[in-house]
Amino acid sequence: MNEKIPYKTYLTESEMPKKWLNLNAFMPEKHDPFLNADGTPCTHEDLEKVFCKECVEQELNFTDEYIEIPEGIRKFYTNFRPSPLIRAYFLEEILDTPAEIYYKYEGTNTSGSHKLNSAIPQAYYAKNQGLSSVTTETGAGQWGTALSMACAFYGLDLDVFMVKCSAEQKPHRKEVIKTYGGNVIPSPSETTNAGRKILQEYPGTGGSLGCAIAEAVEKAQNTPNCRYVLGSVLDHVLLHQTVIGLESKIALDKYGVTPDIVIGCVGGGSNYGGLIAPYMAGKLRGENNIDFVGVEPVSCPSMSKGKYAYDFCDSAKITPLAKMYTLGCGFMPSPNHSGGLRYHGMSPIVSKLYHDGYMRVEAVEQTKVFEAAVQFAKCEGILPAPESSHAIRVAIDEALKCKQTGEKKVILFGLTGTGYFDMAAYKKFNEGAMTDTIPTQEELEKGFATIPKL
Amino acid sequence: MNEKIPYKTYLTESEMPKKWLNLNAFMPEKHDPFLNADGTPCTHEDLEKVFCKECVEQELNFTDEYIEIPEGIRKFYTNFRPSPLIRAYFLEEILDTPAEIYYKYEGTNTSGSHKLNSAIPQAYYAKNQGLSSVTTETGAGQWGTALSMACAFYGLDLDVFMVKCSAEQKPHRKEVIKTYGGNVIPSPSETTNAGRKILQEYPGTGGSLGCAIAEAVEKAQNTPNCRYVLGSVLDHVLLHQTVIGLESKIALDKYGVTPDIVIGCVGGGSNYGGLIAPYMAGKLRGENNIDFVGVEPVSCPSMSKGKYAYDFCDSAKITPLAKMYTLGCGFMPSPNHSGGLRYHGMSPIVSKLYHDGYMRVEAVEQTKVFEAAVQFAKCEGILPAPESSHAIRVAIDEALKCKQTGEKKVILFGLTGTGYFDMAAYKKFNEGAMTDTIPTQEELEKGFATIPKL
Question: A181, B378: Cβ pair inside 8 Å?
């Protein structure tokens, strides 16, 4: 039967999910609540000062298993979704593996990644609430691009704080955001207190997601009729990303296929959480024993080397505290070529799943990641983003294990985006000039020291 | 019924075309044959010195209406096709037009354009013939990227002569080609006689497609077991591109929709010829009266200002002569931001169709083209290539005419690629620094003077 599975499966519009899956409702034990700096749990009111009202509703919803996707969002979803579920026949052939490999490819839209899945609802809810502008941060630039597209569509102004080293590596990415009307500010910047403070402490720093978040939050709070929107980490972002997993499962179910392993890269954790959601919901209820793998860079090993503790989501300590795996909100990762994975913390949901033993984590080196990326590009045709290539690396490794053991495992991985804007990184790799940076124990300790003591 | 037409239509694998459509077989009057420099018609043997054997067979086939797509090609086609046929509901809404607008979007693959449709068969036939390498030219870089992907897949070495001003505008495009193993040489270069000669005549020139072709042909002829492959102009390239039109028609036929106008940008003419093919085949037999529109830049007006004459396909006059609309093989177009449309000549098939009154041509200014591109990007989400945006410009203009007249015309246009690698051009436009260049009568006359007198 599997021989009939096509290279690509697209759902029809009527097959597309009409509800997101709320993983929080399936968790037998909920993750710890967000806290204010004074240690009190965050209320709706606390969070609504920073985020859009509807997003806060979703963030604090631990009961509804499914949440309706409004018509106005599904309309724009239909414009760039469904994304294809691809059977990696060419990769299987090159690897000569008995494994079946599938990947869900989120890179066919102009933002080049899965980020649009959450940018659209967040812009939609902001507009519905009557806001006139939003602020955000962006690492690799994919989130900023996605949000600029969503803001152009719904009619909102936008300030994007872009991690400085990414802004320099990807000048063209900046220009895409500007073309869609977004205002790009390299971070750390002189435009906020948070930025100025970090520039004083770390002159010449390439910046980090944590620092850019701090600037964006500050800007939103000082601008009338404006809120901050975030591209990952939070539960409502992960909720929006469940369209990835839901579409994948609907497509695989058509062929009677269930994955044995599900693999995704983890930066803030939302794409990964979204990909695994429908399968993880089953595992949480004891209905399957799928092997879930989150892949992170060795240069920013939030889960494999991090502590499970309450920490700030940003480096300026102005966001609420989340219980998560963290390297410390003051951890400054060395520049690498996966801007989207350079974050000190991790989604509270993903952190809780890891902590409770429902998934495992692999940390991989970027040279090995780019080897996998180029091997994949040459046979499957798609030039993957460095972030996504972390998942490819582990998918290939798992398929090669199957070759040794003879197991016909079914591997599903998330291919979150394209590498079109990462050619500076590919150039470095092509020229043999790429290196790996692993944080020293001293650097880790320095980061851990910035985790607040409650 | 039309209300049920989805945003996007994807064919299933079994619905995908298994044959290309050979427009030459449908032409009541065939176009004039290729000639050698001495004025004698080109034989198979003449052409096989330059091109792959099977491509020459196809080039000289004026009888078979359909030509089988080999299994080995359809396999790779299935990896990145079908491309979506998209109903431009968002654009229709913004324009407030009674027209129905559809576009066939070829930009979802990594090469970012339709070029892969012909790169794959050409690399496949080269490999089957036992060649070890091929050479080519590239303008915007899309063809070079596509061919590098195809060569990586089938295992062939590749030299790409890239028009110098494009290579400078798009350093990252170069790096994609290198990532897939292609060797990029900015043209004019010092590596060939043709390049050296042009550099002497026009020091500091940004190059042209005609010049890059000359260098690639020379390199192929001086390299053992190597042939030259071309990304447009020739009949066999147009043949391969008919998958675009065939897929479009199969999708539209499902909904009982027939276009009133079909619009495509024309550089060498192959994407346009491929898009219109199945509908034009009908028009040639008197079965429809569709309005076919080819759109070219005013800065390189091969059809609207060119002469219908025998001319060389390259500026060094080493290729065969083709009867086509031409500005003269020595015409040096001013640099603009649509590298793929900067060609002095035009596909012999498209030239013949235009000459015989089966289609019309519009020449548009690049500032107007970028206005259309940004309007389209903001509502439809897709950031279009400057080349493709020529078609968008005219599609919007036609839809606005319908708004005035109240006509509910059905418009189909070809969206050949993405603008990811054209951000330098968008930057210029965003900053208001873009200008239009229209060749003077003197410049045109200088070009015409280079058309050979037979």
Answer: yes
Interface test with A, best of B179, B337, B370 (most A CBs within 10 A): B179
Please report the pLDDT score of residue A2 as a whole number: 46
Query: How distant is the Cα of A383 from the closest Cα of chain B, in angstroms?
Result: 6
The answer to whether B418 and B110 are in contact (CB under 8 A) is: no
Average pLDDT per 10 consecutive residues for chain A, totaling 454 residues: 79 96 97 94 94 96 98 93 96 98 95 95 98 92 94 96 87 91 96 94 86 92 95 94 98 97 96 98 98 97 97 86 96 80 93 98 97 97 96 98 98 95 90 93 96 90
Q: Is A196 exposed, middle or buried (0-12, 13-18, 19+ CB in 10 A)?
A: middle
B contacts of A151 (beta carbons < 8 Å): none
Among the partner residues A109, A149, A382, nearest to B110 by beta-carbon distance: A382
Nearest neighbour of A383 by CB, restricted to B176, B374, B378: B176
Q: Does A108 touch chain B (CB under 8 A)?
A: yes
Q: What is the predicted ipTM?
A: 0.92
Which letter, b or e, does each residue of B290-326 get, where b requires 16 or more Cβ atoms within 10 Å of its Cβ? bebbbbbbbbbbbbebbebbbbbbbbbbbbbbbbbbb
User: Given CB atoms, is A254 within the 8 Å cutoff of chain B?
Assistant: no
Contact at CB, A420 and B421, closer than 8 angstroms: yes
Cβ B176–A8 below 8 Å, yes or no?
A: no
Cβ–Cβ gap B172/A13 under 8 Å: no
Closest Cβ–Cβ partner in A180, A379, A426 for B175? A426
Chain B residues touching residue A85 (CB < 8 angstroms): none
Percent of chain B with pLDDT over 70: 99
- CA–CA gap between residue B179 and residue B181 (Å, rounded): 5
State which residue of chain A sits closest to B146, comparing Cα positions.
A381
Contact A377 B110 (CB under 8 A): yes
Contacts of A234 (CB under 8 A, 6+ apart): A55, A59, A270, A347
What is the pairing mode between strands B410-415 and B261-265?
parallel
pLDDT of residue A106: 97
Average pLDDT, chain B: 94
**What is the mean pLDDT of the segment spanning B399-422?**
95
8 Å CB contact of B426 and A180? no
Select from B13, B172, B379 the Cβ nearest to the Cβ of A423.
B172
Which residues of B, range 21-60, sit inside 8 Å of A by Cβ?
none
Best probe of the A interface among B75, B154, B172, by most A CBs < 10 A, is B172
